[in-house]
Amino acid sequence: MGRQARATWISDDGLAAVTLHLESGGLHVSGERRARLERAALSHVQAADGVVSFVAGGDTYRFRLGAAASAWADALTTAPPSLAEKLGIAAGRTVAVRGDLPVVELEDALSDATRVPPFEAELVVVVVRDHDELESLPVWFRECGVASPVWVVHGKGRQTTAPGDTAVRSALRESGWRDTKVSAIADSWSATRFHPAKAV
Prior knowledge:
There is one protein chain. The protein has 200 residues and is of the alpha+beta class. The chain has 2 domains: 3-77, Pleckstrin-homology domain (PH domain)/Phosphotyrosine-binding domain (PTB) (PH-domain like); 83-195, Rossmann fold (3-Layer(aba) Sandwich), CATH 3.40.50.150. It has 5 helices and 13 strands. A hairpin with a 2-residue loop joins strand 12 and strand 13.
């Protein structure tokens, strides 16, 4: 997720074709040259004549992006949304949680929400750590009267044994749930938002 674009890296060593990936944690550069730069390290960001420039770690970086340069300068200087904002969890919103939250960032995102039973919740957050938990979800939704959007927190990448996004989508789509959004949670965890099937 995040912003991505092809660019030309302009440096004293010449030009290099690269791809810029802007995520909440920082800017990743891949291609003919590579770099990883934290957002907090970027300063003096500006755009001129189709080129974005900034300073990081005492070095000046310049990337030719053409018409997208101004938008990228804005993105580099705009604080990313918090996890609570990405999940749509405002203070006082009613939330039901099933399962142990895997990371402190998720606990913090839910800290200002009001915990209620699933059938009363405006939003439900479910953590699946194995395939048995995943397969039981549709039945649990029905038994608990879940009728609100659900964030299913699942594994991401090769460093986890929890079911990944493909398995989660397959299991819930078969039960009529529609996936509408994805949000990164941590290095080994992500979340997919589902909406219940419309009543016929």
